[in-house]
Amino acid sequence: MAETRYIFVGPPASGKGTQTKLISETKGLVHVDTGSLLRENIANKTKSGLIAKDYIDKGHLVPAKIVAEIIKDRITQQDCAKGFILDGYPRSIEQAKKLEEIRQKYLPQIQFKVIYFDIPMDNLLERIIHRYSCPKCGAIYNMKLNPSSKGNKCEKCDVELTQRKDDTKEVAKARFETYNEETAPLINYYKKQNALVKIDASRTVHEIYQDIVRIMKNDNN
Ligand code: AMP
């Protein structure tokens, strides 16, 4: 029987990153997050990173070929054999088709299930512009909704929190447009393949977490 791997799809700041982090810690799945992988490439000044930077700074999608290469390299590594969650990939129909090619060629034993984070988009801009994270452990805080008890430092690491460069109002607006135009069509695409499960992502972190765990349990993971 095919082994299930998960794709988390939803608008920016819908909570995908928070849930992937929690689930990967408790279930031992590898968190594969294209945004972070691209930011690492930028920090390391790789060829892909240098190209990606301009697109990220504008809130646009990085060219599909670059992201596909990064994803293929990551999900075929040994640690991913025990299971992984794709957070932020695919982000367009073109990328979904590319992912299917990668699956068929390198990982034919797996099948994907898509968890769609359904949430009204009205309050997400607020979430983004007050979002800070720990550069060491990746913990995500929100200065208004979920502040660190240590002010501008991480509760766990005591390291100063930082804000992502693309978490400004202007870039975030462009990211929402990109989501509506390029990523939202994936919902119907995967629905038609019977691969989509919708969850109500406007609830608490704990409620959403329990929902995802229940879905995974039914898949025997
Ligand atoms: P995220 O950390 O998921 O919010 O992604 C930050 C930025 O990285 C996005 O606004 C895009 O510019 C870029 N990015 C992340 N994932 C992808 C992807 N699958 N395809 C293209 N660009 C991406």
Topology readout:
Elements: E1 3-9, H1 16-27, E2 30-33, H2 34-43, H3 47-58, H4 64-75, E3 84-87, H5 93-106, E4 110-118, H6 124-129, E5 131-133, E6 140-142, H7 169-183, H8 185-192, E7 196-200, H9 205-218
The chain binds adenosine monophosphate.
Beta content comes to 15-25%
Characterize the main sheet.
Answer: 5 strands, parallel
Q: How many extended strands?
A: 7
Ions, cofactors and other ligands present here are: adenosine monophosphate
Structural class by helix and strand composition:
alpha/beta
Instruction: Label the overall shape.
Output: globular
Quickly count the helices.
Answer: 9
Q: How would you sum up this structure, described in words?
A:
By secondary structure, the chain is of the alpha/beta class. Helices cover 47% and strands 16% of the residues. The protein has nine helices and seven strands. The strands form two sheets. Strands 2-3-1-4-7 form a five-stranded parallel β-sheet, sandwiched between helices. A hairpin with a 6-residue loop joins strand 5 and strand 6. Helix 1 (16-27) crosses helix 9 (205-218) and helix 4 packs parallel to helix 5. The longest helix has 15 residues, at 169-183. Bound molecules: adenosine monophosphate. Residues 12, 34-35, 38, 55-56, 59-62, 67, 88-89, 91, 95, 166, 175 line the site of adenosine monophosphate.
